[in-house]
Amino acid sequence: MTAPFVPQIALYRNWLAEQRGLSFANYEEMRQWSVRDLDGFWRSIWDYYDLQSPTPFAAVIAERKMPGAVWFPGAQVNYARQVFRHVEAADAAGLPAIVSSGEDGKLDATSWPELRRKAAALALHLKEKGIKPGDRIAAYLPNIPETIIAFLASTSIGAVWSVCAPDMAAPAVIDRFKQIEPKVLIACDAVTYAGRRHDRKDVVAELRRSLPTVEHVILHSEAAPAAPDALLADIVARTGAAIDAFEPAWLPFDHPLWIVYSSGTTGLPKPIVHGHGGIVIVVLALLGLHNDLGCSYHENSFGERYHWYSSTGWIMWNSQVGGLLSGTTCCIFDGSPGGTKDKPDWTTLWRFVAQSKATFFGAGAAFFANCAKAEIDLTAAGDLSRLRCLGSTGSPLSADTQAWFNDRFAALSKINGSKAQADIWWANISGGTDFAGAFIGGNRELPQTPGAMQCRLLGAAVEAFSEQARAVIDEVGELVCTEPMPSMPLRFWNDKGDARYRASYFETYPDNFDGSGRGPVWRHGDWLKVNPDGSCIIYGRSDATINRHGLRMGTSELYSAIEALPEVLDSLVVDLEYLGRDSYMPLFVVLREGTAFDAAMQARINKAIEAGLSRRFLPNEIFAVAEIPRTLSGKKQELPIKKLLLGQPVEKVINKEAMANPACLDWYLAFARDYLARTAA
């Protein structure tokens, strides 16, 4: 398959004209309709994708408010049921559901009937173990077909899914899973990454000890387990009439689907609950209309194959699996995207894209930047002629990186004859774990500017707010969303009165914040500029949350790992991802008197971060300081120090009268001057 074929958004626009009598002068006019007429827009998505329910819904949106909007009351759905609608047609067309590979380069395919049968076998096993709708299933698994099978099995019976990647250390996993009290743990006892086999038996044993609510353990293992646990491979190999006849349960539209985690600057990771219906309808619109992904067995997009590189710990894993909702073949890779430490190889994923015949390839912006820095040779990766689109997210993609790839693909098109690659289309998106979707993204019909995203998405009432809480154009402001979307969280798990949920997104702009009578507005935590032509630029996080290559982590989790060391009395970390720069994360530590700040001490700090969180969150540099700046109430002043290091004047970012230790600022001001001089050079 090669472009051009009819863009998905054009098919939808034509459908609106034929079925609804709606026409628009341009895309922005259509988007304005979609955020003003929420009922009309989301009803059109339901009808356009032919979503089904055995019972009618009473309204599209019962109450137009944030938080707490109720969508499609009365409707019944199931994520797995929507996936399995495609089994017969896709299989008849000879197309697989999943194409997978790991670092060994071996390519495997999972057929649509096999996907359904294995998920049904595991679903019935879970029901036999007494798992009921609403029970939580925790998974500690890599990005392999078995993880998708386990997810579909869980959701098909109404259980609530939650997964952590096996590169996460036990304390970080326990901090997440202990909040949701799972009944089942599905875990791997080993994982391969960057050429090394990492044993995870000790982590699984620690999870058992720390999660007393777990009644049943299922192991993904290449060896017979010592404990009397069930083996995932044995369960999904079962066959029989009951498995063949199994169908996913019909569930209320807002029945909990999964729990994902997004960390703030304080407390434990936030366990965010999303619903079946909200995720299904938003993901279909995002992947279809804005990522231009078509159904693999439809004539207009025949042979479509979707790959977005991700670990299971990133929300992009959820997005990758979402391709199955529209009958699209998903290509998944488990392992390091850049080879090993000793032998870096940034063509690894490109070879997988060629072998799997992917038509869409997405990854974090940092991946593309690393490829450009390594000056990779795309012609050495194999036949990339089917690739028609690149996707990027996780952090801002620089104009230089995008232009570098544009030049390489233009040259490649002259070799392989791909018209799509002569001016390769980028579906650059910005969204979040928080609502498992995107606010800003692509549109295959709009012009492209390297370093910018093409548009605000349909249904996303996104604005850049000034300091006066007014929507601004061509100025950097706070990214806000002024209208509800179906995939916004149902709630946080065990969050009494939604107190933490409200504080996380609606505290900055609460009810009637501007005196206009409007309700609360969602503050996302990113800097945004909306250009006059409607394109957008994200400038990084506006809060103190760490964003390393698309994975967010609360500073409090990092402090817990560091300050457990007896030598570390205090610490502060900031992430300077901004204006498309690479993420730079300095760590400042106060050491116990008499402790030498030498290479061994720095290694101990890094080891504590790796053991408590993950190698992904190791700082770029560590500095020993006399004090950590704090407010009179004792709060670490992360944001002011971050703003200093981004070049903002001290008088605008710090109120010394509100500080407990203003004298310590002199050191940070000197450090900021030195850092800014180095980066300018």
Care to give the gist of this entry?
By secondary structure, this protein is of the alpha/beta class. It has 23 helices and 31 strands.
Please tell me about this protein's structure.
- This protein is an alpha/beta fold and 681 residues long.
- It is 33% helix and 20% strand.
- The protein contains 23 helices and 31 strands.
- Helix 8 (170-180) packs parallel to helix 9 and helix 19 crosses helix 20.
- The chain is globular.
- The two termini are 46 Å apart.
Give the topology, please.
Blueprint: H1 8-20, H2 27-36, H3 38-48, E1 76-77, H4 79-84, H5 87-92, E2 98-102, E3 108-110, H6 112-128, E4 136-140, H7 145-156, E5 160-164, H8 170-180, E6 184-188, E7 190-193, E8 196-199, H9 201-210, E9 216-220, E10 230-231, H10 232-236, H11 241-245, E11 251-252, E12 256-262, E13 270-275, H12 276-290, E14 305-308, H13 315-321, E15 329-334, H14 348-356, E16 360-364, H15 365-373, E17 389-393, H16 399-416, H17 419-422, E18 425-428, E19 430-432, E20 437-441, E21 455-456, E22 462-465, E23 476-481, E24 491-492, H18 499-505, E25 522-530, E26 536-541, E27 546-548, E28 551-553, H19 555-562, E29 568-573, E30 586-591, H20 599-612, E31 621-624, H21 638-645, H22 650-653, H23 665-680
Parallel strand pairs: 2-15, 4-5, 4-6, 6-9, 9-10, 14-15, 14-16, 16-17, 17-18, 30-31
Antiparallel strand pairs: 1-11, 2-3, 7-8, 12-13, 13-24, 19-20, 20-21, 22-23, 23-25, 25-26, 27-28, 29-30
Helix pairs in contact: 2-3, 6-7, 8-9, 19-20
